[in-house]
């Protein structure tokens, strides 16, 4: 997104009502909607983003589920609420999301396979809850077996 500094520097920026291709064409906090830069509306839901780190995981590795790229288009980042859940996992897995109500949750896969997570990002708009959801998946591999260590003493 372009900021007021971009506008003042003379770079091409799109103000309210300008034609745009993407939100990055608009001056912050405007958004590209219907190919026009416009202000977010009170009825707009938050924007949910879900990321998993590390990108490659093994059984027993702690995964970080991160929704910090989520945002409220009206700028109320402190008012966002998060709810993480596992929506798909290998059949015998008993693993659960830890700190599921936080922007950054964690998860320790207990068996190899594909795991899919969903975060619901909510904000209260004058007593009406607006929610957006995002998903992220990761395929977990078996941990390599540790080599046995011989002790001659």
What does this protein look like?
The structure is a single chain. The protein is mainly beta and 153 residues long. Helices cover 3% and strands 37% of the residues. The protein is built from 1 helix and 10 strands; from the N terminus they run αββββββββββ. The chain has one helix spanning 4-8; strands at residues 31-33, 36-38, 51-53, 57-58, 63-66, 81-88, 97-98, 104-107, 113-125, 128-141. It is elongated.
How do the helices and strands line up, and which of them pair or pack?
Blueprint: H1 4-8, E1 31-33, E2 36-38, E3 51-53, E4 57-58, E5 63-66, E6 81-88, E7 97-98, E8 104-107, E9 113-125, E10 128-141
Parallel strand pairs: 4-10
Antiparallel strand pairs: 1-2, 3-5, 5-8, 6-9, 7-8, 9-10
- Tell me the Rg in angstroms: 21 Å
General form? elongated
User: In what order do the strands lie side by side in the largest sheet?
Assistant: 3-5-8-7
Q: On the 0-100 scale, what is the average pLDDT?
A: 82
Relative strand content:
35-45%
Which structural traits does this protein have?
four-stranded antiparallel sheet; 153 residues; four-stranded mixed sheet; mainly beta; single chain; 1 helix
């Amino acid at each position: 997104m372009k900021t007021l500094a971009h506008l003042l520097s003379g770079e091409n920026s799109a103000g309210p009502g300008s034609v745009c291709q993407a939100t990055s064409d608009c001056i912050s906090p405007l958004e590209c909607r219907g190919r026009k830069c416009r202000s977010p509306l009170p009825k707009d839901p938050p924007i949910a983003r879900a990321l998993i780190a590390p990108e490659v995981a093994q059984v027993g590795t702690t995964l970080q589920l991160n929704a910090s790229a989520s945002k409220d288009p009206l700028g109320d980042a402190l008012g966002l609420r998060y709810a993480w859940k596992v929506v798909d996992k290998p059949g015998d897995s008993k693993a659960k999301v830890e700190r599921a109500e936080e922007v950054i949750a964690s998860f320790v896969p207990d068996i190899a396979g594909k795991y899919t997570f969903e975060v619901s990002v909510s904000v209260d708009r004058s007593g009406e809850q607006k929610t957006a959801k995002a998903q992220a998946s990761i395929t977990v591999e078996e941990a390599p077996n540790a080599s046995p260590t011989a002790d001659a003493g």
